[in-house]
Request: fold
Amino acid sequence: MPVVVLVSASWAAPSLPAPTVLRELSTRWGSRILTLLVEDPKDEVLEQWNVDVLPTWMRFRPGVPQAPLDEAQEERLSVAALSGLAPTGARVVLEGPWTLTRRRTGALAKHVAETEFGPNAPL
Reply:
């Protein structure tokens, strides 16, 4: 099952509505997609995940990359675990490995996030 991770910060104005959008989409998606909020992350997390802009939306799938990358593809990010807050506010750790399949930076309208990260989004 894919996981949509929102990296945001309480001090970054474009990030302010993003957690609400994520919670609403999580309710809509139900058990088809897991969601995590990583708010006010440490610099180490931002560096490891190559996050330069907040908010950043990321979609991960379980496993490691299956095919070698060509020069046109963005470097694939693989992480051992994902951790953040579930829509309920509970801290969650999802053991991996996880591979990044989609990234988008900046504030997104709900319909854009739905299209690009939801259950019907391309892998």
Q: What stands out?
A: The domain at 3-67+75-117 is CATH 3.40.30.10 (Glutaredoxin).
